[in-house]
Amino acid sequence: MTLEMGFVLVVIVVMFVALLLELARPDMIVFSALVIFVLTGLLTPEEAFKGFSNQGMLTIALLFIVAGSVQKHGLLEQLMKQWLSKSKKVRGSMFRFYLPISLSSAFLNNTPIVVTFTPMIKNWCEERGIAPSKFLIPLSYVTILGGTITVIGTSTNLVVHGMLLDYGLEGFTLFQLAVVGIPVLILGFIYLFTVGYKLLPNNKGFSEQVKQDSREYIAEMTVSNSFDFINETVEKAGLRELKGLYLVEIIRESERVSPVKSTTIVRAGDRLIFTGLISTIAELQQLKGLQLETGTHLDLDDLKNGDVQLVEAVVSHQSSLLSKSIKQSQFRSRFDAGVLAVHRNNERIKSKIGDIILKPGDVLLLLTGSDFIRTYQQSNDFYVVSSMETPNHLNENRKKGWFSLIVLITMILAVTLNILSMFKAMLLAVFIFIITKIISPEEARKKIQFHVLLLIASAFGVGTAMTKTGLASWMANGLLEIGEPLGIIAILIAVYILTNIFTELITNSAAAVLMLPIGIEMAEVLSLDYMGFAVTIAIAASASFITPIGYQTNLIVYGPGGYTFSDYIKVGTPLSIIVMLITVTIVNMVWF
């Protein structure tokens, strides 16, 4: 190993650790590694930033706009509602619902699909007394499985395709991955309908738990001068034996009193932190001299007259709220809404609301005005925004919806028949959507997830550094020394597992970019078809089932389904093994 190779390896290891510890946003961490390579002279600016003009990455940007245009007018949602309403049995409903969703995810970005259908499925389940947790992880998984059928099914496939073109090799055709993707989807369905269904938890929905007062929330109340028990003990003030409510902390200027004893004195200006049932919290504010802090001018009493509503919102990967406390983000002034509760890993966070530092996947219980959902439905700050009372409706326009769907199908046919390349087809689709006003330029800009593009483009540069310094070749030879005596199957399994581990720990696109140079080197040394390794890496990088953090769609359903980290491990591990065995077997048969 040369000094340059060692330096690149150290930077990549530090990058991995930073990604694991969530020290910053993934795109900023990978971009920082790229900047280091440029500043140290390992990469020229042209080599480092070549990924920003990569055809695969630019196609991903266009697909964000295409998917947003097709889903904007609510046609798919209405068709799916009608289709779903015809099913009576739970598993029959799963099949009717997930088959068309998985097929649509082969042609549309799966993130907006999951964002669109998560609140719909949740409401549908709650109307029928079914646990949403039985449906939401499968929603994420089937979109991932469906995305393995075509090259435009996931950003990962397009990233690998773009890298192959950069290497001067032939990229994927539209349905080349289907030889693996279709068997993976079929067997994945069978697993999810049988063993997987039994392994899924039977959690009540978030909103259902609120309605039944079965989940604890945190509330903050301020003691004013008009409180009748100032300078009296907590017990005498009647704050000790409250039904379904517990006084966990008193904040007095810079002092925190915790645990609160029955003999603790209550003083004017004290901020009382309660945990308990939302109905009891609402009753407590009727006491003279105690004022509920909702973080907004809105009040729980306003729920009765319909002026305000309880809203559930899931914090997104690209949210501007991340890595800062709710107070620092000025949530109240920005959104004109108050945060009543924050849930993470299906547990209430035991902290003062304003001090909580938000993370992707956190579920916020908000007290908002009646127009909050309409205003922030398309916001990058939240994945899912849905009312606790009424289902979420998109701006419906059936004619525009059908037109956008026809345009998409036409473009797919043009790619299939080799009339247009994928990039040109998606570019034409976006052009048609904008000139026909299906989507405005401003809406198109908002649909593009720039943090995803920055991550992918930066990862391209990191991959270039691995190839240029010889690190990719060195790692490939190391893997071959271990795997070659065991045969090609063992080598493919090793490549698959390593890629899949990277995907679960960091991100799918970054895993693909880092592993593809290694895979191509291995193919060259073994004199095998590079396409077999490229397909293996593309599928392994997409098949993220074991953790909620490896793939965005897993994180989107994390909070609304009330899941724990272990639920993904329990349900996702067998599915991951199934996908690996199918992929390795078919790749060996078809390409080797």
From TrEMBL:
Q: Which residues cross the membrane?
A: 6-21, 28-45, 57-76, 97-115, 135-160, 172-193, 403-436, 448-466, 486-516, 528-551, 571-591
Look up and give the membrane topology term.
Multi-pass membrane protein
Arranged from A to Z, the UniProt key words for this protein are: Membrane, Repeat, Transmembrane, Transmembrane helix, Transport
Which Gene Ontology BP terms does the record give?
A: potassium ion transport
An example of a Pfam family matching this protein is TrkA_C
Against InterPro entries, the record matches this protein to: Cit_transptr-like_dom (IPR004680), DASS-Related_Transporters (IPR051679), Na/sul_symport_CS (IPR031312), RCK_C (IPR006037), RCK_C_sf (IPR036721)
Q: Where in the cell is it found?
A: Membrane
As given in the record, the signal peptide range reads none
Do the record's keywords include Flavoprotein? Answer: no
Q: Which domain of life is it from?
A: Bacteria
Transmembrane in keyword set:
yes
Q: Which GO terms describe its cellular component?
A: plasma membrane
- Coarse class of the primary localization is membrane
* All copies of domain RCK C-terminal, residue ranges: 205-290, 298-382
Q: Name one GO molecular function term.
A: monoatomic cation transmembrane transporter activity
This chain belongs to the protein called Di-and tricarboxylate transporter
* Annotated source species: Gracilibacillus kekensis
